[in-house]
Amino acid sequence: MMTVEEMAEGIGRAHGAALDALTRALWAGVAAGQISDEDAGRLVEAIQARRTAIQAVQAAAGRGSLPVGVIPKRKRQRPPERSLAIERRRRLAASGPMPSALAARFTTGELAVLRIVADEFQARQVCALCLDAIAARAGVSRTLAKGALRQARRLGMVEIHERRRTGAKSLPNLVRVVDREWLAWMKRGASQAKSGTNGIGGRFAPTTDRRLVTTGTTRPAENLQGAIERGKANCKGIA
After folding, report:
1. Whole-model pTM?
2. Mean pLDDT split into 10-residue runs, the chain, 239 residues
3. How many angstroms separate the CA atoms of 47 and 7, rounded?
4. Rounded to an integer, what distance in angstroms lies between the CA atom of residue 154 and that of residue 143?
5. Are 91 and 83 in contact (CB under 8 A)?
6. CA 11 to CA 43: how far, in whole Å?
7. Of 96, 131, 79, nearest to 201 (Cα)?
8. Which residue, 105, 76, 83, is CA-closest to 93?
9. What letter does residue 140 receive in the DSSP assignment?
């Protein structure tokens, strides 16, 4: 049989079924004459106060706000809706985050992740975003983002400094770009952005004919009809 002090201490920590068990033990002790009416009244008040506190926490959690002193769980950052995530990662991968020789070693999702890392590195000389934030911005899963960084490190393109803490949650890793070709690509892209031409690593590729008009063709408008006529004549010759 628990003492009154032990029971009072247990009530302050109990939840759900444990609190019900303490209530039954209380009345069993009263019936056996082991707990006085005065102590029983004090313990009943403690049980009622504990139930009220638990209900308040549950109600506040449902409203999205918690009482003072209760720390809410941190929500994980997630990619947007699937269709939007796919569009985002494709757009980031197509923006030219690195030279084509390097980009060929990565998938579309991995290139989107490395674009986020490159942008952060250009802005702050280090990427200190947590893995969940990188994944959410790139529109990929956390596992894919982690794999992209692992692959880039294996290829010697980035250095990753882990910031582990004993007895506490680790801080986000520090990622730095060290590949010379990639750094030169980013530097060239930054200079182009300042001059108003394009962003990171981007270049305007001239067409084969600078008289290109807005018809979406690769031939000058004045020669298009002639090409069509020549094509018809060739088809007749084959027939």
Report:
1. 0.49
2. 79 82 80 78 83 79 56 55 79 88 92 94 93 89 93 95 88 94 86 55 39 38 48 49
3. 10
4. 16
5. no
6. 8
7. 96
8. 105
9. S
